[in-house]
Design goal:
This protein is 62% helix and 0% strand. It has one domain. It is built from five helices and no strands. It is mostly helical.
Length: 107
């Protein structure tokens, strides 16, 4: 579960601040790649710490049993990312909750 949450969280950051026009779903494309670099570094640190004693002692992380587990996590994160992009792109929650984000609010 930790692996899935780390990868899905990384994808969420890529959609919130898109590094490429493909990821533009939650925000407009600005070309800022620094959040993407931070995500790559953090995921790399997570993958490096997972099989070490430091990951086990401090975070109770353990490597997965076989390659199929990593494949399942990759597919799950990809499906999550595609669903997230489509929900943001087509404003599904806005329609469901009948929210008009273009409306001006007087405060």
């Amino acid at each position: 579960m930790t692996h899935v949450l780390v990868f899905c969280g990384a994808l969420t950051i890529l959609f919130v601040e898109p590094p490429l026009p493909f990821f533009a779903g939650g925000d407009i494309y600005r070309g800022n790649i620094w959040p993407s670099i931070v995500v790559i570094v953090l995921v790399a640190i997570f993958l490096i710490l997972t099989p070490t004693w430091l990951g086990k002692e401090l975070f109770d992380l353990q490597p997965l049993n076989n390659f199929a587990d990593y494949l399942i996590i990759l597919v799950t994160a990809t499906v999550f990312g595609l669903l997230l992009k489509s929900f943001w792109r087509f404003r599904i929650f806005d329609r469901y909750m009948r929210i008009d984000l273009n409306e001006n609010f007087d405060a």
